[in-house]
Amino acid sequence: MNTILEQALRLPMPERRKLADDLYDSIVSGSDGFSLSQEQRSEIDRRLADLREHPDKALPWGDVRERLRKVA
Fold first, then answer.
1. CA distance 26 to 32
2. What is the DSSP string of the chain?
3. pLDDT tens digits for 25-70?
4. Nearest by Cα to 48 from 71, 25, 70
5. For residue 33, what pLDDT is reported?
């Protein structure tokens, strides 16, 4: 694992969420040809707000990945 990721994983959860949001914003605002429609952006914002309001509803990525592998 690289040093930057190790440092990020040691951050408290609120700071990790902020970092993830900032990284995401830097990706979608970049000029590499990746862009979202306003509708897509609104949906992502809605889902992020829901996740922040109800963090207990979230599933770990490993669980989601396993469920997807079983149905694929």
1. 11
2. --HHHHHHHTS-HHHHHHHHHHHHHHHHTSSSS----HHHHHHHHHHHHHHHH-GGG---HHHHHHHHHHH-
3. 888 776 666 677 899 989 999 998 999 999 899 999 999 999 999 9
4. 25
5. 62
What pLDDT band is residue 1 in, cutting at 50, 70 and 90? low
Copy the structure tokens of residue 1. Answer: 């694992």
Name the pTM for this structure: 0.49
Q: What is the CA radius of gyration of the chain?
A: 15
CA–CA dist 18, 3 (Å, integer):
19
Picking from 9, 8, 55, 44, the residue whose alpha carbon sits closest to that of residue 36 is 44
